[in-house]
Description:
It contains seven helices and five strands. It has a five-stranded antiparallel sheet with strand order 4-3-2-1-5, with no helix packed on it. It has helices at 5-27, 37-64, 68-79, 90-105, 110-178, 182-211, 213-264; strands at 275-279, 298-304, 311-316, 319-324, 328-330. The N and C termini lie far apart (117 Å).
Amino acid sequence: MEFNVKKFVGDAGTLFTRAVQFTEEKLGTSEKTELDAHFENLSQRCDLTKSWTEKLVRDVDSVLTPNPGNRVEDFLMDKIERRRLARLSNLDYLGVDMVEAGNDLGPGTLYGSTLLKVGLCQQKLGALERDFATSATQAFVDPLKKFMESDLKSILRERKLLESKRLDLDAAKNRLRKSKTQSSQQTAEQEVNLAQVEFDRQSEVTRLLLEGIGPAHTSHCKHLQDFAAAQARYFLACSATLQQLQKELGALSLQVSTTDITLNSPTSLGLPERRKARVICDYDSQDATELSLIAGEIIDVVSTFPTDPDFVQAERGEQSGKIPSSYLEFIDPTC
Length: 335
């Protein structure tokens, strides 16, 4: 590639001139063409839109892809125009481990079957999470990124060009102010007129682009509605999945409770529903649900507790309550 020395020197001179002009404007020693208030408001709205759009896109990306390493990986894949890698979520990993644990511990056992049901539910939730991430990206993230890459970049490019035209116009005005001869004044006036025409034309182009921010906001509202709708569908599907899991676990628990009651009932143990027992030693009740005992007295045992086999329900006349079974000696009804 051939190096153009003249172009390099010219660009360096322009940069130096611009730096001097900016300094003089800051110090108030040089004239600066001001844009009207409406244009400044449009420009400020554009800056706010750019700042908040970038932040919102980053925030949504963080929600959809919580792992920073995965976000960096996705960013690089987008830059080289490659398809993003498919990966499992934490819910997927949890579900896989629960299913494996359930199979190893025995799908026919209570714990194993419960692990299988909950694990499969976690895998369903992981799939729903991936579907939501895809829908939210298509509905909200992609349109906003496209806006930043196309419309917003065009506006920023034209604003930069407008600033260059303004500097050219102000530089021409300074040369006109400093010209001393008639011929130099005529030349400077022509330069000012030409620079003014170019500045006005670029100002109008930039203004039209800036006014397009308003319709862009309207489009962003539609994208927000689509994002909220995708989020609502996701949470609704998650709720339905978890409710179904609760029903399955509730049915399983009911089966287990019925089995425990049958196995621990006095009838299943070969005992009658009510049985007399003699108190071996005194016992003071610990709370209002228990019954105090006196050594040697005879009481009626009416039932057992499947969840607490160390206690039985007993009656003594009009009184009833829980008592420890170890304090009792059952009386053989045949004696």
